[in-house]
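User: Fold this one for me? It's Arginine ABC transporter ATP-binding protein.
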Amino acid sequence: MIKVEDLHKSFGKLEVLKGITTTIKQGEVVAVIGPSGSGKSTFLRCLNLLEEPTRGRIWIGDQEITDKKTNIMKVRQHVGMVFQHFHLFPHMTVLENVTYAPIKVKGMTKAEAEAKGIELLKKVGLEQKANEYPSRLSGGQKQRVAIARALAMSPDVMLFDEPTSALDPEMVKEVLEVMKSLAHTGMTMAIVTHEMGFAREVADRVLFLDGGQLVEDAPPHEFFASPKSKRAQEFLEKML
Ligand code: ADP
Ligand code: MG
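Assistant: Here's what I get for Arginine ABC transporter ATP-binding protein.
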């Protein structure tokens, strides 16, 4: 589903990604972990061209998104993204947040988009909040709306950048539960997370980044039981 070949990204003189090569299969759930500043967010943002790679190639499905001829807006329709700080539209209700893009970008009718929106809000346990404004929701509820909003575009892939890092501890679980049930539907997912328990339980593979390099790429049971590199060993000692 996603193929990344020798991906480099620099900001001026700072080389943040130093040649990442990996693939993510359809239906696979990949946890991206590593120290702060290792390039995890930049890596994720390259996958939907929120950052333009300096070098290397990326395919989503059979489309090379790094091809100059590719329509970036089209690519983003197929790749949902959920951020640490939700980024909901504050002046729109929950349901309007979820129906906005399907109506504007996909040309769905309001009735169609609302029917689908309510169905998705049910999935994340928030149909009773459809007419609330985001400011009246808890962090965990906001993040579940953000997930429903991304799903409303029927993406092929979902990217999550530390979706629970801004949440109070008691709200982390409700968001992880939604992500877990999404994983069980067969959605292809890449998740930057510091939730090692979640990565171990839900991910099919762990990508460990350090210093802009993909240092390990292994199933969680291998990675957590016997990380091969010193860098991963040291990271895990601090985390666990
Ligand atoms: P992580 O998500 O693993 O913490 P990031 O991908 O956010 O790491 O950042 C990796 C490095 O790239 C950091 O040193 C960060 O300061 C730098 N960086 C990220 N985005 C930009 C940007 N837009 N301009 C300049 N430097 C950036
Ligand atoms: Mg980050």
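One thing worth pointing out: The beta strands are 2-11, 14-24, 29-33, 55-60, 63-64, 79-82, 157-161, 188-192, 205-210, 213-218.
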